[in-house]
Write a structure and sequence with these properties.
This protein is of the alpha/beta class and about 150 residues long. The chain is built from five helices and five strands; from the N terminus they run αββααβαββα. It has a five-stranded mixed β-sheet. Helix 1 packs parallel to helix 5. The termini are far apart.
Length: about 150
């Protein structure tokens, strides 16, 4: 998760919401990314989506069985759906997202019995640090917007 936090800080340096993701397969990093929506002008350029794309390219398969993704913030519905479609085995995330979280907070796409795949989920890993990075970012944004 520390590496995901490092990726989140890169997003922040590039003016984007600081969220980072790391995909691991057999103890090897096969994808690492940060939010790039502002940088790429792409609404789908979330850290999870980019990391999944990298992992799929590395493993030469869209089926990411055996992989774990570490994300600093609970995935949104788009990203949670992508995790299910990618057949990721496990999701580990830092802090909950009560406004758009889709791994238990608002929705639970990753554990929905109606879907063809469900993930093992671990939440709260480095939650305070992950939340702090986001809170500091938005606090600075609010201050900049009032100046």
């Amino acid at each position: 998760m520390k590496l995901a936090v490092e990726q989140a800080r890169v997003a922040e340096e590039n003016g984007d919401v600081p969220i980072g993701a790391i995909v691991v397969f057999e103890k090897q990093i096969v994808g690492k990314a940060y939010n790039q929506r502002e940088q790429l002008k792409d609404p789908t350029a979330h850290a999870e989506i980019i990391a999944l794309t990298q992992a799929a390219a590395f493993l030469e398969s869209w089926r990411l069985h055996g992989c774990t993704i570490y994300v600093t913030l609970e995935p949104c519905p788009m990203c949670a759906g992508a995790l299910v479609l990618a057949r990721i085995d496990r999701l580990v995330y830092g802090c909950d997202d009560p406004k758009t979280g889709a791994a238990g907070s608002l929705y639970n796409i990753v554990r929905d019995d109606r879907l063809n795949h469900r993930l093992e989920v671990t939440s709260g890993v480095l939650a305070e640090e992950c939340a702090g990075v986001l809170q500091d970012f938005f606090l600075r944004r609010r201050v900049q917007n009032t100046q």
